[in-house]
Write a structure and sequence with these properties.
This protein is of the alpha/beta class and about 450 residues long. It folds into 2 domains: about 180 residues, glycerate kinase, domain 1; about 180 residues, Glycerate kinase, MOFRL-like N-terminal domain (Rossmann fold). Helices cover about 40% and strands about 20% of the residues. The chain contains 16 helices and 15 strands. A 6-stranded parallel β-sheet has the order 6-5-4-7-8-9, sandwiched between helices. Strands 10-11-15-12-13-14 form a 6-stranded mixed β-sheet. A hairpin with a 2-residue loop joins strand 1 and strand 2. The two termini are about 35 Å apart.
């Protein structure tokens, strides 16, 4: 999975950190998650503790998308086979499928081909009737991959606003509040379009706490945010949006545009949502592998957030405590976390949250400690990297490293140090995964 794996290793700590990253991503593979959560016995489709009698439906269609959309489509075809009448999913990591069309989109900035693909998918939703069972596949990245600009909003305006929000350091829920109110798909829009069909969503979550309204901007979940709140997000981060977006949000706040559907909306009367994999799925795999290798595992949290370079310092502080006092675990140990950190752009370089996390940590790490930090979809920020693996040898001179962080230009520095992790699109997305391996006595720097 990890390209150039031999060059990235070299020490027991780095090797184990890379092994743990691969184990975490593999555990969150949609095919594996669906195989463990979904089964078919005759006409009885079981998803977790819920079940559906397929004989009561006139047709079965598949909709949705996201980074994991292709893998999920392949997996659900493996379960349902010829029972699927038709389907369309949108992704940037295509798979070979049969009845389900896999359509292209782009991430993290929405594209015109993503608009066309999403419109084609929504056409199937519009055709659904009361006798339709719609299996909806949702995963991280869906917000960008499935743009459906609302009436009066252009793709270019949506792109401009998205880029500004990503650069601002806004959290994903804030970004999605704006996206939902500029979309015909997000914020319960797909559920509204598919009604009165029965909608059953299978979800691979990349969101802290698995908030259904935030994953892919919640196409089949009620939306509690409002037009006024979307405007407040833009104001909070000092973003001056394109005029057509500002006008739409103002019209919505004045009641001239219908709000996104909330929990009382009849669009959700026949909607079930099932999370089949999330960030904790990856962390559990890291924990299990660590124990197998004789290391004491510690899951810090699946909900880490905040500025990447600052969160890194806290993680390093935990390793120092482990080494100094054996608290909360004795070394050798593997410390891991998930969630989603952010980067507030001040420079104009290349990198991403996991790369900034890694380089910030490398400035502080003791010897006999290694860190691997990746975005599980294989795309960290706007770069081609998944993340980076570092140790105390990654930064021979602190000043160039600090300068790279100051300019948000960490990719060239880490690449020169042979620290960049590349996987290509992994076909899943359960957000960030960070692994710290602590062995042996420490050394002050």
């Amino acid at each position: 999975m990890i390209r150039g794996r031999e060059e990235l290793g070299g020490t027991p700590e780095r090797e184990l950190a890379l092994d743990c990253v691969e184990a975490g991503i593999e555990a969150a593979d949609p095919e594996r998650a669906i195989a463990e959560s979904v089964s078919l016995d005759g006409d009885r489709l079981s998803i977790g503790e819920a079940s559906y009698d397929l004989s009561t439906y006139e047709e079965l269609v598949v909709l949705g998308g996201g980074n994991a959309g292709g893998r999920m489509a392949s997996a659900i075809e493996g379960v349902l086979g010829e029972r699927i009448a038709k389907g369309r999913v949108v992704t940037d990591a295509p798979e070979e499928t049969g009845a389900i069309e896999v359509l292209p989109g782009d991430h993290p900035v929405p594209s015109e081909r993503g608009v066309e693909s999403t419109r084609a998918m929504l056409e199937l939703a519009d055709e659904a009737g009361e006798g339709t069972l719609a299996i909806v596949l949702i995963s991280g990245g869906g917000s960008a991959l499935m743009p459906a600009p609302a009436e009066g909003v252009s793709l270019s305006a949506l792109q401009e606003a998205t880029e500004a929000l990503l650069a601002s350091g806004a959290e994903i829920g804030e970004i999605n509040a704006v996206r939902k109110h500029c979309s015909a798909f997000k914020g319960g829009g797909l559920a509204r379009r598919a009604a009165p069909a029965t909608v059953v969503s299978l979800i691979v979550s990349d969101v802290i706490g698995n908030d259904l309204s935030t994953i892919a901007s919640g196409p089949t979940a009620p939306d509690a945010t409002t037009f006024a709140e979307a405007s407040e997000v833009l104001s909070r981060y000092g973003i001056d949006p394109p005029e057509e977006i500002a006008e739409r949000l103002e019209r919505g706040a004045n009641g001239d545009v219908a709000e996104t559907p909330d929990a009382d909306d009849p669009a959700f009367d026949r909607v079930d949502n099932h999370v089949v994999a999330d960030g904790f799925t990856a962390l559990e795999a890291v924990r299990d592998l660590s124990r197998e290798r004789g290391y004491e595992p510690l899951i810090l949290s699946s909900s880490v957030r905040g500025e990447a370079r600052e969160a890194a310092k806290t993680h390093v502080a935990v390793t120092e405590e482990v080494r100094r006092s054996g608290n909360p675990v004795e070394p050798p140990a593997v410390i891991c976390s998930g969630g989603e950190t952010t980067v507030t752009l001040r420079g104009d370089g290349t990198g991403g949250p996991n790369q900034e996390f890694a380089l910030s940590a490398a400035l502080e790490l003791d010897s006999h400690t290694a860190l691997a930090s990746v975005d599980t979809d294989g795309i960290d920020g706007a770069s081609d990297a998944a993340g980076a693996v570092v140790d105390s040898e990654t930064v021979p001179d602190p000043e160039p490293a600090r300068a790279a962080l100051a300019e948000n230009d960490v990719y060239p520095y880490l690449d020169e140090q042979g620290a960049i992790i590349e996987t290509g699109p992994t076909g899943t997305n359960v957000n960030d995964l960070r692994v710290l391996v602590v062995t042996g006595p420490g050394s002050s720097r």
